[in-house]
Design goal:
Structural class: mainly alpha
Number of helices: 8
Number of strands: 2
Shape: elongated
Strand content: under 5%
Amino acid sequence: MPRPRMGGMTQTTAALPSPAPAPLWARRAAHAIALCAVPSGLWRIAMACGVPVGYSDQVLRDVYDIPGWGIAYVVGLSVVAELAALLPLLLVSRRWQPVRPRVLAPLAWTASGLLVVLALWQLVVFFTADSRTYLSGDTAQAVWCAAFAPLFAIPVLMTAVTWSYAKRHRAG
């Protein structure tokens, strides 16, 4: 619709095409990413609060500096991880888009790639290093695995949500 401007010229404002809404599966996947980060965060917070999670007091002191600055580190890591896990919700939101799709899509693809590399690296570290030797027994290792296993779903979910976002905004 023409709008008058200074000097008698008119300016036309064309509505940008609106992309299709995110499919239900993509919205569920974005929410699942946020939920996948919860168990490991709760495990870390329990460790910081003194709940026995399978580490001896000596390991907590020497390796994790708990009690001490290690408490702030593990709680902070849990909060930052959960906040990062909430960011994919931007890819399925129609109400709030703080960044243009041309910027957000490459950022999301980069994050997906980094998450895949990080997950593969963590698998290598877990199965080759002595990371499990600090845990006191089989039950502690099982609880640790149950808390951290959902994190390995995040790269797959993030890639799917990113693909959906890029497809919708390319078509729109």
